[in-house]
Amino acid sequence: MTQRVAFVTGAMGGLGTAICQAYAKDGYKVVAAYHPQFDNRDEWLKEMEAAGFKGFVCVAGDVSSLEDCQKMAAEAEANAGPIDILVNNAGITRDRMFAKMDKDQWDAVISTNLTSLFNMTKQVSAKMTERGWGRIINISSVNGVKGQAGQSNYSAAKAGVIGLTKAAAKDLGKFGITCNSVAPGFILTEMGEGMPAEFRDAAINESAVKRAGKPEDVAWLVAFLASECGRHITGEVIKVDGGQYI
């Protein structure tokens, strides 16, 4: 069987790194997409090699740009082969209470966290339908399910991710493509650690397990959804939140 290709956006953050490693362990060819403004590619590749991971294909681009997504997909296909698995993981926060939120803060989060899914999925879905197989996994958030004070832009974008996931699952299912969403709770990544201490403590305290999650807790599920074991799961929103929502 030809080696499957997994394309991961936001690949060089904490969660993206764990997802790339999980797919590499499962034998996939991994394309790591990153924003050129945060070009730590060489350092990241050295860290991956030191951890025993080699052969990642890296592509740079802004997922909020349709043109950049077209270029990244073309570069990935030229260097790794057709994209079989797409993980829309890239995301940012621009937190502020709603009454004080600027339009720029709203637009930046909606563009990067939601519009990017259209931009990137548009590049791969048609070719997946032609091949009759594909996996699309969209990273949402528990805050897209329940909302969060100070994150109206982020919560709106992540709720939109869920709606898009469900609609795309219905559009693409008959072509052998599954589309699912993973909704993490508080995870100890650089983004999570950058939250104000009171928000971090509140998220941990409202969880059932009373601790933060780790990136690999999410990555294991993302890898499962791409495997044959997850082939009959589509249109789902699966929370990885330690019981933060219940």
Folded structure, characterized:
This protein is an alpha/beta fold. The chain has one domain: NAD(P)-binding Rossmann-like Domain (Rossmann fold). It has 9 helices and 7 strands. A 7-stranded parallel sheet has the order 3-2-1-4-5-6-7, with helices on both faces. Strand 4, helix 4 and strand 5 (134-139) form a beta-alpha-beta unit. Helix 3 (66-79) runs parallel beside helix 4 (103-131). The mean pLDDT is 95.
Mean pLDDT: 95
Distance between the termini: 42 Å
Helix content: 40-55%
Based on the structure, what is the oligomeric state of the protein chains? single chain
How are helices and strands ordered from N to C?
EHEHEHEHEHHEHHHE
Considering the protein shown, what is the CATH homologous superfamily?
NAD(P)-binding Rossmann-like Domain
* Shape, per Cα inertia axes: globular
Strands, total number: 7
CATH architecture: 3-Layer(aba) Sandwich
The name of the CATH topology is Rossmann fold
Number of domains: 1
How many strands, which pairing sense, and closed or not: the largest β-sheet? 7 strands, parallel
What's the arrangement of strands in the largest beta sheet? 3-2-1-4-5-6-7
Which features would summarize this protein structure in a list?
Rossmann fold, alpha/beta, 9 helices, globular, 246 residues
TL;DR of this structure?
With 246 residues, the protein is α/β, with parallel strands linked by helices. 47% of the residues lie in helices and 15% in strands. The relative contact order is 0.15.
Architecture blueprint of SSEs:
Blueprint: E1 5-8, H1 14-25, E2 29-34, H2 41-50, E3 57-60, H3 66-79, E4 85-88, H4 103-131, E5 134-139, H5 142-146, H6 152-172, E6 177-184, H7 190-193, H8 197-205, H9 215-226, E7 237-240
Parallel strand pairs: 1-2, 1-4, 2-3, 4-5, 5-6, 6-7
Helix pairs in contact: 1-9, 3-4, 4-6
